[in-house]
Amino acid sequence: MRSRNLTIVFAGLCGYADRVGTQTWEESQRMLRRNAALVDPVFRKFGGRRVKQIAGTFLVAFESPTQAVLCAAALQDRVQRFDETLPEEQRLRPRVGIHLGEVRLLRGDVFGEPVNIAARIEAQCGPGEVLFGESVWLSMNRAEIRAEDLGERPLKGIPEAVRIFRLQSALRPLPDLGPLPRADETFEGGEFTRHLREAAQAAMRGAEDSLPGLPGSFRVFVGAGLMAMLAMAAMFALARIGALP
C-alpha cells in the first residue's frame, strides 16, 4: 500500500436519495448517466481523477489543491446553469467538501483521515456551497480565489476541530467545458450508442481546437487520427456490452 499527499474532493448532488427512491431502475440509470455527463468534464479539465461514485456523491482526487478548488468553482457554475433548465424541485445544487493530506492508495481507491474529513466537510455544506479545510487554504494559490473564513468546526468522528473556509468566487475566468447535457436526455440506444456518442463529441472538440490553426497537409493526418479514435471507441463499446470475445 502506497501513500501520497492528495487533495480529496467529495462532490454531492442534492436530492439524489429522494429522487432515486421514486424511480424505476432504468430511470435511475439515466439520471446517473446524465449527472456523470454534467460533472465529468469538469473533473477532467482540472486534472481530477474520479475514484468512485457513492450514490449521488463523487469522490475525486487531485494533485493540486488550487486545481481542486477551481474545479469546485467551475462545477458550481456549470450545475447552476444546468439547474436553470429544471423545475425548482428537480434542481441539483451541488455541495462540495475538500481536504488535503496524506492518503493511502490501494487498488485504485483512497483511504485515510483526509478522506474522512473531506466527507464530513461535504456533509456540512448547504445546497450550492463549497467548503474546504485549512490544509487546502494554506497549500493553494490564494490569489486564485476569494474565500470566507468560517472558523473552527467540530466534525463527526474527527478528534479535533477543523478550520473551514467557504468558497466565494474564482478570481480568474473559468474555462469553457462544452455543452450541457439536455435535461430530458434519455440515452436511447444503450451502452454502445452512448460510448460512440461520447467518443464523437470528444473527437469534435479536439477537431475544433486543433484544425483551424494547422496547415492543410496536417489536417489530413489529424482527420485520420480522429477516425481512428472513433474506431477504437466502437471496439471498446462492443467489448463493454459483450459483443467481442
Q: Please indicate the percent range of residues in DSSP E strands (runs of 2 or more).
A: 25-35%
Assembly form of the protein: single chain
Order of helices and strands: EHHEEHEEHEHEEHH
Number of helices: 7
Q: What is the CATH class name of the largest domain? A: Alpha Beta
Mean pLDDT: 83
The CATH homologous superfamily of the largest domain is called: Nucleotide cyclase, GGDEF domain
Describe the structure.
- With 245 residues, the chain is α+β, with helices and mostly antiparallel strands.
- It folds into two domains: 2-170, Alpha-Beta Plaits (2-Layer Sandwich); 190-240.
- The protein is 44% helix and 25% strand.
- The protein is built from seven helices and eight strands, in the order βααββαββαβαββαα.
- It has helices spanning 16-20, 25-45, 65-83, 113-124, 134-139, 190-210, 216-240, and strands at residues 2-13, 49-54, 57-62, 94-106, 109-111, 130-133, 145-153, 162-170.
- Strands 1, 2, 3, 4, 5, 6, 7 and 8 form an eight-stranded mixed β-sheet that branches.
- A hairpin with a 2-residue loop joins strand 4 (94-106) and strand 5.
- Helix 2 (25-45) crosses helix 3 (65-83) and helix 6 (190-210) packs antiparallel against helix 7.
- The chain starts with a strand and ends in a 5-residue tail after the last helix.
